[in-house]
Amino acid sequence: MAWLLRALLLGLSAQQLVIATTASNNDAAQPPAAAGSNEDLAYEQIHKSQIVYTSNSTTSSEWISTNICSQKTYCIYTNPYIGHGRGIVLLTKFADFQKIERLDQHLSLASDRIEPNALLPDGSPPFEESYILSKGPGLTARTELRRGKPLMEAAPVLVVHKDFFADIWRKTERNKMLEKAVSFLPPATKEKFNKQRHITIGSIPDSSRADAEDGQKARTIEEILLASPFEIDLGTNSYTPMGHDPQGDHSKHYINYPSTSLFTHSCRPNLAFHIDGNLALRTTVARKIQPGEELSIAYIDPFKPRKERQEWVGRYRPSPSQTGAGGEEEEGGGCPCPSCTGLYPRITHKQHGHPHTSSPSSELAKSDARLAEIEAIRSELRNHESRGVTPEKIEKFLQLHVEEGLETKMAEAYELAATNYNYMGMDRMAKRYADKAVQAAQIEYGRDANDVIAMRIMAGDVRGHWSFGYKSKDKRGGGGQ
């Protein structure tokens, strides 16, 4: 079995650690030996001696400041003992390091594994490594996977402050700092990380060159982070879902999960993901997956206009071949997703929405129109003072999501449906969609997310919810309060 599947099946068991406390500099441990040297590396000494944070746990857990910094601001911190030797490296500001350091007991609970309930009866993975046409190496299902099934957990190994890329304007300096940071990872973890450095180019490799070095393109660490831009926001003490951009001066970081590198990108994916309180990335099946179907996630906001998605994919996740089989230029600007090219598969079963059989240009026009209509109706549903909302408009809003293949984005849609039906005093419909919102939010945000709790409360007593009859009260002069 491929390296990824072996790594997942042999995932490390987690052991809880207590919150770290500062140790004496005299007792400081030396950092692991790094590849190469510090010669010609842009950095500043911010401390005369190393700072080590050590745990009170019986399992050794030490945070080490390497004293390697850029502009005296962005420094490398490492803990080679997290996750029983998996290790993690940070490139961040000192204040943000302190926030993450306090999470070390949680970080050690994260692991690389396939969810036990997803394993086949013989204990083997429910997916296998395959070559995805127009995308390269990926994972395909070996069995049918139903919506709501937890699939995989992945542990973080590299965390980089997003402002680092804007404040350190010299790309060569950024590259040196990132390479030095990765050099502090334990050898086995570094080997897994380095698997992400190459992407396949050209046409489908035959069996004689499937493992060959030719047909590969090297990527920098910066390119790896930007191609898989998972984010956390320490400033709000929460974990930022993809595409969300909360206001304020927060502490946003890119976070890398080598074990997810074979999930292909799709603007209309079949897997949802979220980052939990242990900073583990968890994937869940968002719609029924058939045997042989690729496993995909959306690395960017799927609600973005098609042109923006095409440009992003073409820049950060280009298809292995930029030309079609006949040598013609590939539609979609290098983005192989059906929602970019209009080349939908001629499906005979109801995978999502309806079979697409018209021309690519016609399908793209329909997709653009659906996204525009979704945005227009969403604006109305979010406005509790709107007077144009009808049951027909709510149902149309939900149907557009399904037709567009946005099953990974149903939580908000169901929540808006439940709330607006409750505004109108239609408690049965409100209850129906509040229950659906709970299920969808568990898939998209995790079982303990605030959205899950809020919608569960509403579903438990829709008539007692503040939104019940809101617009009816307003019409009767009740003030809508």
CATH class of the largest domain reads: Mainly Beta
CATH superfamily of the largest domain: SET domain
Number of helices: 16
As for the CATH topology of the largest domain, it is Beta-clip-like
What are the defining features of this structure?
disordered C terminus, 33% helix, alpha+beta, four-stranded antiparallel beta sheet, SET_dom, 481 residues, SET_dom_sf, Beta-clip-like, SET_domain_protein, signal
Word description of this protein:
- This is SET domain-containing protein.
- Residues 125-300 form the SET domain.
- InterPro entries: SET_dom (IPR001214), SET_dom_sf (IPR046341), SET_domain_protein (IPR053185).
- By secondary structure, the chain is α+β, with helices and mostly antiparallel strands.
- It has two domains: 3-297, SET domain (Beta-clip-like, Beta Complex), CATH 2.170.270.10; 365-475.
- 33% of the residues lie in helices and 16% in strands.
- The chain is built from 16 helices and 18 strands.
- It has helices at 3-9, 82-85, 94-101, 104-107, 163-167, 171-183, 187-194, 221-227, 306-316, 338-341, 360-382, 391-403, 410-423, 427-445, 450-460, 470-475, and strands at 21-22, 52-54, 62-70, 74-79, 88-92, 113-114, 127-132, 136-141, 150-154, 158-161, 198-200, 216-218, 231-233, 252-256, 264-265, 271-275, 281-285, 296-297.
- The protein has an eight-stranded mixed β-sheet with strand order 1-2-3-4-5-10-14-13, sandwiched between helices.
- Strand 7 (127-132) and strand 8 (136-141) form a beta hairpin.
- Helix 12 packs antiparallel against helix 13 (410-423).
- The longest helix is centred in the last third of the chain and has 23 residues, at 360-382.
- The chain is globular, with a radius of gyration of 24 Å.
- The termini are far apart.
- The model is unreliable at 1-60, 203-213, 237-248, 322-331, 346-355 and 475-481 (pLDDT under 50).
